[in-house]
Amino acid sequence: METGGNSLPSGADGVKRKVCYFYDPEVGNYYYGQGHPMKPHRIRMTHALLAHYGLLQHMQVHKPFPARDRDLCRFHADDYVNFLRSVTPETQQDQLRQLKRFNVGEDCPVFDGLYSFCQTSAGGSVGSAVKLNHGLCDIAINWAGGLHHAKKCEASGFCYVNDIVLGILELLKQHQRVLYVDIDIHHGDGVEEAFYTTDRVMTVSFHKFGDYFPGTGDIRDIGYSKGKYYALNVPLDDGIDDESYHYLFKPIIGKVMEVFNPGAVVLQCGADSLSGDRLGCFNLSVKGHGECVRFLRSFNVPLLLVGGGGYTIRNVARCWCYETGVALGMEIENQMPRHEYYEYFGPEYTLHVSPSNMENKNTPRHLEEIRNKLLDNLSMIQHSPSVQFQERPPDTELPEADEDEDEDDGDKTWGSDSDMGVDEDRKFIPKRVKREVIEPDTKDPGDRKGTVEQARGSVTDETGVNVSPMAIDEPTMKPK
């Protein structure tokens, strides 16, 4: 679906961007349960803002192809995926042993459509990576992704399937090095753990540290074996504001881009680091949070943006709408247009909200110590690591949309009057959904002849041929 989605120039780099945006209109219907802070409805609210701000017409808009079992098993264990597919609210009492084994129950409840939700989240991130790999866009967005706590064999922190790891694995088919940056208030432990022993993926996490979930992410955790110095952790304290955050973010990420030289970047934009979050304790503004997106965009490297945490949902929608505008290189008005969720944003009815006057417990001296320590760690990387390939896995093909569906679908974009973001009781209109889907892997398994580095935890397809672009070791660290 071509929409002429090249964006406006951004800053000094002056390069236009083409943006792909993945959205499933059913995603807002999933419900973790009464009182649970994770509300997928926030993604639908974000989409409504994008529609009424007129941003959708500047992007390629895709409905993600649901990730299949074998796609999820490129990282997750078979028995864990089988459990997620089979468990239901009605049958969970008969599977108590497995619920405990896979850490499903309280923070990660069983709800109606759980597996479909996981397929949608993962499908959007893998589909985004496919688009970037094929050079069909410069920036890809999946706000339903970013579930960074999920482990190979267990759910954690409201996350069941790690769409980020799956997206990075797809990017590694095309790129020798991938950078992962996490600005959620919680440590990106699941992604770090997955790539802790490799120099092909660098993980950088900015997070609250100290008596805070998941308890990992000490500045001394730097990676292991080949991955030593390829994990960076930036431990922060309560009340950090925009100025203090960027004092660390910009020099550290600037140095990372220089020494690691990634072929692609994944940025997890968890919005629970915003001021006033229901579960958070930072004091970032929407603009301050979005400045991280703007800074990474300026390097002109293929960029995948995913969602993550965020529990004051009106502010999550504000943030991800603004950051979509940043990706496009478009400045959008502060005064919010009227739309179906307008009442959520009162009494200001604006895109931006002022940070609070909470105390910033991050002293200038402590910030300087963190910055110097991490820059010293980066100096241990003398040059971009070399990667030896025999044959890399085949590129994932883009399936063609069904011709009849294309003929039926007259809408190439969703305009400001889109009813894709409607309230809970209204029905979606299928014709308004662009039928193009991105299937994560369509090659015949029998065509896979390549060999890649073998290691513990790597996943094979039905033929027994290892199709991982790199080895994933068994978890080397556990959250406290």
UniProtKB/TrEMBL annotation:
Positions annotated to bind a divalent metal cation: 184, 186, 272
Keyword Transcription: yes
Residues that coordinate or bind substrate: 107, 157, 311
EC number: 3.5.1.98
Record's subcellular location: Nucleus
Primary location: nucleus
Cofactor: Zn(2+)
Reactions listed under catalytic activity: N(6)-acetyl-L-lysyl-[histone] + H2O = L-lysyl-[histone] + acetate
GO biological process assignments: epigenetic regulation of gene expression
GO molecular function: histone deacetylase activity, hydrolytic mechanism; metal ion binding
Active site per UniProt: 149 (proton acceptor)
Keywords: Chromatin regulator, Hydrolase, Metal-binding, Nucleus, Repressor, Transcription, Transcription regulation
InterPro entries documented for this protein: HDAC_I/II (IPR003084), HDACs (IPR000286), His_deacetylse_dom (IPR023801), His_deacetylse_dom_sf (IPR037138), Ureohydrolase_dom_sf (IPR023696)
Biased composition (Basic and acidic residues): 435-451
Start and end residues of each stretch annotated as Disordered: 383-480
A GO-annotated cellular component: histone deacetylase complex
Domain Histone deacetylase as annotated: residue spans: 36-324
Biased segments, Acidic residues type: 397-410
Family from the record: Belongs to the histone deacetylase family. HD Type 1 subfamily.
PANTHER family found in the cross-reference section: HISTONE DEACETYLASE 19, HISTONE DEACETYLASE HDAC1-RELATED
Protein name from the UniProt record: Histone deacetylase
